[in-house]
Amino acid sequence: MSHNTFGHLFRVTTWGESHGPAIGAVVDGVPPLIDLSEADIQPWLDQRRPGQSRFTTQRQEPDTVEIFSGVFEGKTTGAPISLVIRNQDARSKDYSDIKDTYRPGHADYTYDAKYGIRDYRGGGRQSARETAVRVAAGAIARKILGTGITVRGALIQVGSDTIDRANWDWDETARNPFFAPDAAAVERWTTLLDTIRKDGSSVGAIIEVVASGVPPGWGAPLYGKLDGDLAGAMMSINAVKGVEIGAGFGAAALTGAENADEMRMDGKRIAFQSNHAGGILGGISTGQDVVVRFAVKPTSSILSPRATVTRGGENAEIVTKGRHDPCVGIRAVPVGEAMMACVLADHLLRHRGQTGKS
Predict the structure, then answer these.
(1) 57, pLDDT greater than 70
(2) Rounded to the nearest 5 degrees, what angle is found at the Cα of 171, between the Cα atoms of 165 and 173?
(3) How much is the pTM?
(4) What pLDDT does residue 317 have?
(5) Which end of the chain is more exposed for a tag (fewer CB within 10 A), N or C?
(6) Are the C-beta atoms of 281 and 85 separated by less than 8 Å?
(7) How far is CA 31 from the centre of its chain?
(8) What Cα–Cα distance (Å) separates residue 228 from each residue in 224, 245, 253?
(9) DSSP notation for 231-280
(10) How far apart (Å, rounded) are the C-alpha atoms in residues 236 and 227?
């Protein structure tokens, strides 16, 4: 199975399966002499960790990260950094009933069609369990970016219920289980997901990730565009079915006059009057906030019976048992942040390599 690596100068290769003994990553291209320990990574993993509320899977994984290489006396050496997270609460028996039956909405059929074999224990390699090590890699990427660049994510829509942007408060995202920036949405979403969970169904979500402090000049035409790499990174996250940058699809409804991000001088620097471009023009950062949104489909594992087929070509009906998120988009927030950080760290190193500037 190829294509388990992303990035160019900052490169991340992930490995492991949902119900194997461990998952992990090899992070290559990290500059030397950066302070790094497990304590720098663990807080970000704790945000994504399952079982923290009734709105996520009740699989109990501590997600404790171990650094196996690339760090000496608390500093990176420039060598590949190997990260390991051990699986401790896998229940493979939950999936024994479906080992010969394809789950609708999952990649069971496509993996089998491609490789002629699939790991039915929680989906194996296709499982969102793999995203834990992306979050760990993202923590290292944040160390490369430094304190001048801030990457933050928020859940802005659950099902068809959206936040009120007039209530946006970044501090609020740390005070509720949804990473919601609108306190008024929390009660509504609580009621909605309680109902969805009891019905044995699920809903989708939209996540917004914003990077502040990115200087102008990162990214390259034509095939190294910053927004192109960000779109690919977000689309690589499990269950993501759509990505937009800045105004995104909404830009189609604007006129040219409305969409143009006008500029004026503010002292000796250029100040933009709006940010419909999401901080990227021609694939290169403008110095404004980089804004990405992505849509996550409803969790495919649900208790409602669904029509399907078996590996032997027989019609069947399936109910997916086990522990699943009624809205997988909740835990996608820290994953989206991690992918943003990884792409930005890669582009920082690429920009430095080509221009000598950060």
Answers:
(1) no
(2) 70
(3) 0.95
(4) 95
(5) N
(6) no
(7) 24
(8) 7, 9, 22
(9) HHHHHTSTTEEEEEETTGGGGGGS-HHHH---EEEETTEEEES--TTTTE
(10) 14
